[in-house]
Specification:
This protein is of the alpha+beta class. It has nine helices and ten strands. The protein has two domains: 156 residues, 2-Layer Sandwich (Ribosomal Protein S5, domain 2); 118 residues, GHMP kinase, C-terminal domain (Alpha-Beta Plaits).
Length: 286
Amino acid sequence: MSVLSEFAPAKINLHLHVVGRRDDGYHLLDSLVAFAGVGDRLTVSPADGLSLSVTGPFAAGLQGEADNLVLRAARALADHAGVPAAGKLVLEKNLPVASGIGGGSADAAAALRLLSRFWGIEPDGATLARLARGLGADVPVCLAGRPALMSGIGEVLMPAPQLPDAGLVLVNPGVAVSTPSVFRARSAVFSDPATFPAEGWRDADSLAATLRATHNDLEPAAQLLAPAIGGALDALAAASGCLLARMSGSGATCFGLFRTPEAAQEAASDIARAGWWVWGGDIIAG
């Protein structure tokens, strides 16, 4: 068996409405999810047992984590397929930890895809989706890895309208926020699901115009817990060519929508500052 690798792109919630709450306490969501051209990378090579090492600029954030989602995904897949859980896994951690862009979920999804190939098994889509749901609410959409309309607690996925070619700037102001804490701090008011044109958007301007009628219901609560998020949003909104600035997920990473990847890259260079993680590039349109 050769060395194989899998890309785990950052997940971006272009909008996020909290539309209800189940009896078991889980919140019901409505979100248009896209993916950015930046992410972690997971590599596997032959080994007698299963191991995981973490490298990259944000490796320290996962040190001492006894049961990383990647290992949980590997064991779940091996148990399902009845194969030994074996392989030397290396996770290049390029995304900030606990930052609202699905880093851990994307890594788990990448593990399911990667190890299916590495172990020579071919689980059907329904099986992989079931395994993904058992790992976390964001893992199913990350497993698909393409723009989607997400509802339920994250497990109900529909194809998104066609996204345009556009640019994104991602900014994390160097703080981590707890998703449960953000949900506890939010207003109890629920939003309606968003409506989008079935045919999609011709360009970034039309996408931004539609998104301005939506919001991220977790943004105010996250800013109360981490005021630095407001500084990131202000920096994005002030950047030349920014069409929309918003927080992704439960934070603290925020995004700016731009007409082109080149415009996003230029804006990212202008926004960069000490202690912040800033990236500019393309949105994965599907």
